[in-house]
């Protein structure tokens, strides 16, 4: 008997076996990045200890605050900022 349903994330097994394929999806500050797995779209971020942790809504909030502070600091220091994305 066949089940006609498509598996929503067929590559999840790949991650389980070989590890996630993280790439930087967003640069928050010079030390904090957000990472997304190319396979299962799981997201990580750098925490205050410099370790990687799951990108929870809480961390997303912290990162947006950090990003704001970082942008402002850069603006004040006079280095060029390309802010194409809406603030
Ligand atoms: Zn993955």
Topology:
Elements: H1 12-18, E1 22-27, E2 33-37, E3 43-46, E4 52-54, H2 57-77
Antiparallel strand pairs: 1-2, 2-3, 3-4
The site of zinc ion has 6 residues, from loops.
Keywords:
single chain; 87 residues; alpha+beta; 2 helices; 4 strands; 32% helix; binds zinc ion; Prophage protein DUF1660
Structural summary, described in words:
Strand 3 (43-46) and strand 4 (52-54) form a beta hairpin. The chain is elongated and about 65 Å long. The protein has a four-stranded antiparallel β-sheet, covered by helices on one side. It has 87 residues and is an alpha+beta fold. The protein has helices at 12-18, 57-77; strands at residues 22-27, 33-37, 43-46, 52-54. It has a domain at 26-77. Bound molecules: zinc ion. Zinc ion (ZN) binds at residues 15, 20, 37, 39-40, 42.
Largest sheet: 4 strands, antiparallel
Instruction: Give the count of helical stretches.
Output: 2
Helix percent reads: 25-40%
Strand content: 15-25%
Associated small molecules: zinc ion
Rg, please?
17 Å
Query: Strands across the major sheet, in which order?
Result: 1-2-3-4
- Element order, helices and strands? HEEEEH
Which residues sit in consecutive blocks of at least 5 with pLDDT less than 50?
Answer: none
- Average pLDDT level: 85
How many β-strands, per DSSP? 4
Estimated structural class: alpha+beta
Shape: elongated
Distance between the termini: 53 Å
């Amino acid at each position: 008997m066949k089940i006609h349903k498509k598996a929503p994330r067929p590559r999840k097994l790949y991650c389980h076996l070989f590890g996630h394929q993280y790439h930087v999806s967003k640069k928050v500050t010079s030390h904090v990045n957000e990472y997304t797995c190319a396979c299962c779209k799981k997201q990580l971020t750098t925490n205050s200890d410099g370790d990687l942790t799951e990108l929870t809504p809480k961390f997303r909030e912290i990162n947006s605050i950090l990003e704001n502070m970082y942008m402002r600091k850069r603006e004040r220091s006079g280095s060029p900022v390309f802010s194409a994305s809406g603030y």
